[in-house]
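Hey, I'm writing a tutorial for new members on how sequence and structure tokens pair up, and I'd like a real worked example in the thread rather than a made-up one. If someone can provide the structure for the chain below, I'll link this post from the tutorial.
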Amino acid sequence: MAFPTETVYGLGANALDADACVSIFTSKGRPLTDPLIVHVHSLDQALTLLDQSDLEIVSLFKKLASRYWPGPLTMVVQANLKLIPNMITAETGFVGLRMPNHEIALDLLRTSQVPIAAPSANKFGHVSPTKAEHVYNDFY
């Protein structure tokens, strides 16, 4: 599914479902060595997705999220690999998390109640889409 954010359109799938996320890689022609950003609807949801073992990192994450979310800031942290499939991290163990500042994106995230892996909604290597018609033209 494609949806707008405050920057570009994203091509999304349930970030907790490895099979769903493989469809993003396949649709985009994206190599599995290029990790996916995961979108969340709240700080609480984001905190479940990061490794909690380094309290200093968790504290810094909370401070940055409180100041800059919702918005275009993506924070890269060690993933909670009990929830996030490692293939989303390109087998690095690190995940980029962000909370978009767009009414439609936030409504989708809140309604679905799952984090959504969503790189830009374009074929790999193409210009990132800023309009729905760009997404349509790239995939149809």
